[in-house]
Every structure is written in C-alpha cells, then in structure tokens.
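## Example record

The block below lists the input lines for one assembly entry, exactly as stored, with component labels intact.
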Amino acid sequence: MDTMRERFAAVTTDLLDRDPRLAVVLADIGVDGFRQAADRHPDRVINVGIREQLLIGAAGGLALTGLRPIAHTFASFLVERPWEQIKLDLVHQDVGAVLVSAAGSYDWPAGGRTHMAPGDVALLDTLPGWTVHVPGHPDEAETLLRHAAADGDSRVYLRLSAHRNAAARPVEPGRLLPVRTGARGTVVAVGPMLDAVLEATEGLDTTVLYAATVRPFDAAGLRAAVGDRPDVVLVEPYLAGTSGAAAHDALADLPHRVLGLGVPREEHRHYGSVPEHLAAYGLDAAGLRARIAEFLR
Amino acid sequence: MSAASTAPATATAAPGRRPYGFTELPSLMGLMTGDEKHGPAATSTLDVLWVLYDRVLRVGPETADAPDRDRFLLSKGHGPMAYYAVLAAKGFLPVEVLPSFGGYDSPLGHHPDRLLLPGVEIASGSLGHGLPLAVGTALGLRAQGLTEPSVWVLVGDAEFDEGSNHEALAYAGAAGLDRLHTVVIDNSSATHGWSGGIAARFATEGWSTATVDGRDHEALHAAFTAPHPGRPHAVVARVEPKNA
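Predicted structure tokens for the full assembly:
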C-alpha cells in the first residue's frame, strides 16, 4: 500500500496530463515524486528551491494568470513559515490554490519540534473561505485531491499524514459520515483518528461521525446526528479544540457541551515514534476511551 | 470622512477625455490628501511610472484584462499617489475619483487594492510580496504559451531588505525568466544600504542590470528597453535621498 504522499504525487502527475490549468510548485521537498511529471510538463512543475515565501508568492502569481497552482511541502514550511504570503498573496489577491501538506503534527517525532505544525488548521481558521480536507487513508486523499484540483478557484488545504486508518471510507467532500449510531453522545473523529476512536468507543453506545473535511464544517450533519443528546467530543489530529467554535456554532440554539481532544499546545520534548506521541497526547485508544467515557457518562 | 451609506464607487474611465501629460501629474497628485507621511515615497516613483505607462507598457484601459497584456505590479504599495495619478492620466480611472483618496467609499486606498481598481494587477502595501508574485506571473504566462507579455514589478530600495525579494531574485536569475523586469527605486531609504550597490546583487544572480538617473526620462526609457536575451532585467532608478 502506498502512502498519502506517494498517492499525491501519482495522482497529480495524472492530473497534470489531463488539465492544462494545473501547475505544481515545490520547494525541494517532494521533488523526487514529480520527476516524471517535470519531464513531461517542465513549465508546470516548478521547484523554487528551499524558498517557502517564494513557494506561496509564486503560487499566487501563477493563479493571477489563470492557472490553478498546487503547492506542496511540510506543513511547518507550507503554512507557518510563509504565513503572511498565504494571507496576502492568495487571500488578499482573491486568487485560489491547493496547498498540500505532509508531516503536520507528529508524523516525524524523531525530527522534533521544527517539523511539527499542529496549529496549521487553527491558523487557516483566522482567514476566510478555506476548505480543509484531512483524509485518513490514501484512497480518501486521492478522492479529495481530485475534487480540490477541479474545484474552480477555491482555496483548499489538503493535509496528508503518515498516520492513517486501516480502511478507506466512502468520503464526500464537506460531509460528515455516520460510522456508528448510539444514544449517549456523539464523537467526531477527524481523518487518521478514526480507528483509535472506534476502538475507544467500543461498547459505549455513542454515535461516531467521520470527518475527512473539517472546513467548511458540516453543521447540518452534526446537528442531525446529535438528536436529543447534544454532547459532542471532537477528536482531531492537530491542535486540541481547533473545531470547537465550528461545533458550538452548529449547536448554537441548543444547550450543549463540546469536548475538544487533539494535540496539546505544550511541546513534548521527546523524539521517538508516532504511537509514542499519540499515547503521550492521550490520543491512543486507551487515552481516548478514558476521556470520552468520563465526558459522556 | 465620507458617509458609509453607499457601495464603493467603481472606477471607470470616461470616454473621449483629452490625454494628460507628465506636466499635469503634480496637479493630479495634489487632488489627493491625507497621506503626507508617504509623500517622499510617492514622488520618488513618479518619473519611472510615467515613462513605463507612457512609452513602455503594452497595456491600457481597453486591454486591462487582455491575456497578452503587459503586467505592471506595484510592489511598493505605500505612497501610491503617483501611481493613481498616472493611472488617471492614462484613463484607467476617472480624475474625479482622486479627491476621494483614503475615504470609506473610495477605490483609492493608501495601499492599492486590485479588486477595487481596473488595471491594478496586485493588492500591495506589505513589503516584499510583489517580486515573488511577479515571478509566479512570469511562470504562469510562460506555461500558457504567452511569451510576448512583459512582467514589470516596482520595488523600493528599503523594500529590497525583505528576504522574500531575495528568494525571488535568486530563483528568477537561475531560471532565466527573461520576461521578468524589476525596477528598484533607490532613494537611499534602506537603513543599512546595500554594499556594492543594488544592481550588483541582481547581477550576481544572473540578471541583466542598468543603474540610471530616476528623473531622466530618456535614460529610463533606454534602460527599460535594453535587450536582455535569456535573462531577467533589473533597472535601478536613483532619485534624491528620502531624507535629503
């Protein structure tokens, strides 16, 4: 089975052959996956070198000429380092792009804090109009990428991860997918958190919704799922509580409770592996079960 | 302060107006008040903007959306009075709009907004964004087979301090983006200056360069139109120091 990033390179290579409007912009990371595409489309596969401000600025310029740029690097360098370029060179110019990240929150714990960006989705929440996809499987990543590439001049963030679920789900962009139905509250599992959430809620009589798109947030889907027990737990693979405001908005006319679980703000100054970090954050099945069961008692 | 009662005015050129000349630009700029802090920044660009729009750029009000137009990106978006005056003189916007400068309903801000003004390619004001956007614009035109249009970007010498500009100029030189042109208005406003001169920085990265008197229209025109096969082109236009 390939990784989400490998699927991204293969699918984008195919899309470049079919859609003359698409262009890929890279900053040295991920270049190997696009060698074939660069040979076939040298003017539409652009590697600017280790220059992330230029990565986003050039994407903005490409979009100003009518192309649809797809920019890719690690989340730290795609969202955080050129943050003002995202705000001004894309949003303020009112042009679109597809930003595809990898290694968002904890994909490379041995790499340490410099390569962790658990605040990426929260940062994008400060700007208007972003679609944010968080696939939990390479097949879902492909579905959402193909949708994003064809989605007009919209601004899309596609958050790829090495962390994944065992099986793909039939995701529809922008829709919460009911996975399990219960009477004692609702758990929303985002992207790669689904497997751990399903294990954690085994036997708890809770509804489980799956989100591979978090912005726009499927308020109607959440509203329909909570029934007469509007107690909601969000389990997100990035900063805890990132979708709290969206959930509160969805339930604004109801007395309700929301618990946001995810990556903590505190730095964990440990290296190690993805499972070790998920356990440290309380995002493994055992940690999730304890907190979900306590909240939905 | 203007009343916030109506939608922003749209800036469209009136047909049949007589053309304005360079000597009338100061009076057009005089119609705009409220941004005196940026006055030196505004007048430093006046001659460069005029020569570009009058004699170099292949774009006008009627071709402001044409795919094969030349692009002019004002990166140095502060002090845009000279820019607005030249755009008004060339018919991109009506002269009658100029006094609204900075008002709530005005399309003319103290930094330009591309969504409010025809002919304005980028919204700018924060330093260091225009040259990277211009690189992307040159790449996008090339990818679509539009090899005729020139892309011009205007930056200030202090704006040139921003690291993003150095990312862009190094890449553009290495990539040989020969449709890309940068004008640097040098009014000695950078705190630490640039050792060896600004043009040397571009030349090191493979650009064609020229350094000229930014008030001399013939020298500017010659520098702007100098051939530069296979390389991007930078023109450093020296004007009187900001604090002189």
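The radius of gyration of chain A is 19 Å. The interface with chain B takes residues 20, 23, 25, 43-44, 46, 48-49, 51, 53-54, 56-67, 69, 84-85, 88-89, 92-94 of chain A (CB under 8 Å).
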